[in-house]
Design a protein that fits this description.
The structure is a homodimer. With about 300 residues, the first copy, chain A, is α+β, with helices and mostly antiparallel strands. Chain A has one domain. Helix content of chain A is about 30%, strand content about 25%. Chain A is built from 8 helices and 13 strands. Chain A has helices at about 20-45, 50-60, 105-115, 125-135, 145-155, 230-235, 240-250, 255-265, and strands at about 5-15, 80-90, 95-100, 120-125, 175-180, 190-195, 205, 215, 220-230, 270-280, 285, 290-300, 305-310. In chain A, a hairpin with a 5-residue loop joins strand 12 (about 290-300) and strand 13. Chain A is globular, with a radius of gyration of 17 Å. The two termini of chain A are about 30 Å apart. The interface of A and B includes residues 93, 123, 213 and 244 of A. Strand 4 (about 120-125) of chain A pairs antiparallel with strand 7 (about 205) of chain B, so a sheet runs across the interface.
């Protein structure tokens, strides 16, 4: 069996030990481990990278700990506006949705856009109409409710303030979820999903559904998912830049990720990080802030789950 | 005075001489020349690249010949869904809007997103609410009406078919508009705007409002605007790829544009082209289809306007 590899994240930011309890840490790490073990099992059984990243992101979307799907943050209008995207490194096909309401698993809608339409990206009510046509599962707004997210929103509601979920001082400082994988067939894939920023206004879209910025995959180089402050990530076309540094300058995955996250994004006040995997199963979990909820596992390995920078 | 340069386009595709009359050609070229001369004048007077590309795109949006602003194609619901983006090569700031209705000049809304918000991208009704708050000019749906666009839509309405405006057999085969410029201060900028595809459904978004794909600018390399079949352009992150080939492989602007448009996009069935300018005022007008409505002018020059590949 050829080597397989998976990496996941549940957001990055100012995640500090002194705001954590051992109990909370345990919960967060258990959520990551659950997703990671599922992904690794599917890959070891011969699952395709594209299917595996979708399944793993669904698990993270269904977990209210993370700001994606159930547990997504509140937008300014009191609803949950969901963004997601995915890309197949083999075919270079991609699917993305933005500003969608009440779709249980946004990543599955992104997958449907990719597989069942001639488009790459759909937004808003149009994307919801497509979801209905495709038989995608919707939930009531109540399904997405989370008390802590609601309390976060109440503090900034009716103000022009938005808060990056991960810089809020509350307990569940997550922002985005994502997964990248290498399967037995040498294929790479990336998938990412988010509820964006608490109290976001005006149909704001971050980097998550932007192919090239929040998500990119290409078998020749790597699969990348980003998490962080969306605006500098869009302007820096982060995911594709990592891929180009490998393709055009011959950098290793780790060198390319460091160049973009630890140099370029730092210069541009782009707080956050990324997860990435290359065709040889090398994994990079790189971030320029205090912490990133993250994990990785290669076939036959025990897996690694961590939160802070020194783990 | 330092050299200035501007390039514009009004769409690319299967533009054939045998479907043209001398009169139509004249009209199309006059529209391009008008925009080009304005852009060059503003640049020679000391205008900033960012302001100039906005003004030039506004002229093209206001001209019903082009599929942007007035004269935009009809979406499946009979409205006009407008996308636009722009980027400043000096600050790397960017603004983008997608799926917006009734905004007279979508590029001006993209500029407002860039200058007056903390966001890079807004979509749908949220973006419209922001436009209202900013005092952006709206028009009635009637303003955008164009008989030929309407007739094109009638032919595919109530079918699942969409048509790329430029591959339709009608007379006004335009698709997107765009402008890139170098000003006297060495700053680059790019701006692009479109109505997308006739009968597009489900809130489809093409490459035009995607920073990195349809639009990118960075003083160290180049400013790029794309026009063509949006989906392969998104998946190939075209505009940023041109910039990366210059930055990481040391290619010239023309070499980089050719590598992406004539090789990579051709392999990926990505019909279309791009306009680009670098910090030395070199201009590339590169396309892999029969024609591209295009023009360029450097300070003190006479300017160049063309439609077909052999001009």
């Amino acid at each position: 069996m050829k080597k397989t590899a998976i990496a996941i994240h549940g957001g990055a930011g100012t995640i500090l030990r002194n705001r954590m309890t051992p109990e909370k840490e345990k919960k967060y790490k258990a959520g990551l481990r659950e997703a990671l073990i599922l992904g690794n099992e599917l890959l070891e059984k011969g699952g395709k990278a594209l299917d595996v990243v979708e399944e793993v992101v669904k698990v993270l979307e269904n977990n209210p700990l993370y700001n994606a799907g159930k547990g997504a943050v509140f937008a300014a209008d009191g609803t949950h506006l969901l963004d997601a995207s995915m890309m197949c490194g083999d075919t270079l096909k991609a699917g993305a949705i933005a500003g969608v309401r009440r779709v249980k698993n946004p990543i599955t809608l992104a997958r449907a856009v990719m597989d069942q339409s001639a488009y790459v990206m759909m937004v808003g009510e149009g994307a919801e109409a497509f979801a209905k046509q495709q038989g995608i599962t919707f939930e009531s707004e109540d399904y997405f409710f989370d008390q802590l997210r609601y309390d976060q929103w109440q503090r900034v509601k009716d103000t022009p303030m938005t808060i990056l979920d991960h810089t809020d001082k509350g307990e569940k400082n997550f922002s985005t979820v994502g997964a990248v994988a290498l399967d037995q067939y040498g294929n790479l894939a990336a998938a990412t999903s988010t509820g964006g920023m608490t109290n976001k206004q005006f149909g704001r879209v971050g980097d998550t559904p932007i192919i090239g910025s929040g998500c990119y995959a290409e078998n020749e180089t790597c699969a990348v998912c980003c998490t962080g402050h969306g605006e500098p990530f869009i302007r820096s076309v982060v995911a594709f830049d990592v891929s180009r540094l490998m393709a055009y300058k011959g950098l290793s995955l780790e060198e390319a990720a460091k160049e973009v996250v630890m140099k370029k994004l730092v210069e541009r006040d782009g707080e956050g990080g990324l997860i990435a995997v290359d065709r040889e199963g090398n994994i990079s979990l790189t971030f320029n802030c205090e912490g990133m909820y993250r994990g990785s596992m290669v076939s036959g390995g025990e897996g690694y789950v961590a939160i802070y920078g020194d783990e």
